[in-house]
Amino acid sequence: MSTEKILAKLDSAFKSIVDVSELNEGILQTAKFDAFVDAMQKRTRVIPDARFLEMEAHKQEVDRVGFVDRVLSKGIKDDGSTEGSDSWKNPTINSNKLIAQELRGQVALTDRALRRNIERGDFEDHLVNLFGEAAGRDFEEWAILANEDDLTEAGILEMTDGWAKLAGNHVFGQGSNSFDPDNPEEIFDALLDAVGKEYLVDRSEWRFYVPYEVEDGYRDSLKARGTALGDTAQTTADQLVYKGIPVVYVPLIDRSKQPDETGTEQGVGRIAMLQHPDNMVWGVFHEVNIERYRNAQERRTEFYLTIECDAHYEDEDGAATAFLDKESVS
């Protein structure tokens, strides 16, 4: 197949998933946007559990409404009268904001790779999945580990604060009143103690999100007990549970920085989190842009992705983070 025919087929395939303007910029159509968001969740652990909002604007409120004080009172007073206007109770209304921030990614596909995809007829899915899965991994890292006070981080993690830092309850593996950061059960207990018990109504809905060392250490501690549960933890990949709460290994947490060779703490350090997934909210502004550039000299076509997104909590007081390497956090 000639180069001209390849490019003609590429143009046809590309235009079928985007509306190409005179500026050579495309916005994913609705169906492909949904497929892109699905692809973002394929190889991540926290993002599929968390609550997704399609953002219709660059700023979107995440509201919570509740009644803090007692709302019930006597139907009839002692003197036989009913309660007056002084018995009205007003709800407490709070809100957080998702503020879409621009992230960019780029990928280059060689003519040979494009030809093979076009000949199979699944170029659309290939492009959406390629970007979606890669963006999902990086977004999960950003949503969890971002720390805008970390001046040592030159990448996207310095743009905002992520779920780890935004959690309303922090416990520390260093300093006074610390837990043993090498003991998984002490980490779990410290997180449970930090969260208000009114939040822990159904523990099965909560999650301990942990790095590999914590999940593996918990398996080893169960094995050491010499019970059937310990044998199962050692010989299978079954879901671990601590006091009714599933323990979930999150590979992206392992990207978190540890102290460097001088002992200087970077990033948020090693962490573990106690979360109700529905309390973790993330959003993508509905205009996901893809720009295409033909690099004839390198015999490849380059694609540039622009995505605007953010992550926050509905109620940060219902979340806890254990910082294994720190005794405080900014």
Strand content: 25-35%
Structural class category: alpha+beta
Helix percent band: 25-40%
Overall pLDDT confidence: 82
Tally of individual domains: 2
Intertermini distance: 59 Å
Radius of gyration: 25 Å
Counted beta strands: 15
> What do we call the CATH topology of the largest domain?
Major capsid protein gp5 fold
Brief characterization of the structure:
By secondary structure, the chain is of the alpha+beta class. About 30% of the residues lie in helices and about 25% in strands.
Describe the protein's architecture and organization:
The chain has helices at 3-15, 30-40, 111-120, 123-145, 163-166, 184-194, 212-223, 228-235; strands at 18-20, 25-28, 51-55, 59-66, 92-99, 101-110, 169-172, 207-210, 240-242, 245-249, 271-275, 280-285, 289-295, 300-313, 320-323. The protein is built from eight helices and 15 strands. Helix content is 28%, strand content 27%. It has two domains: 3-61 and 96-146 and 282-312, Major capsid protein gp5 fold; 165-278 and 314-323. Strands 1, 2, 3, 6, 12, 13 and 14 form a seven-stranded mixed beta sheet that branches. A six-stranded mixed beta sheet has the order 7-15-11-8-10-9. The protein has a two-stranded antiparallel ribbon with strand order 4-5.
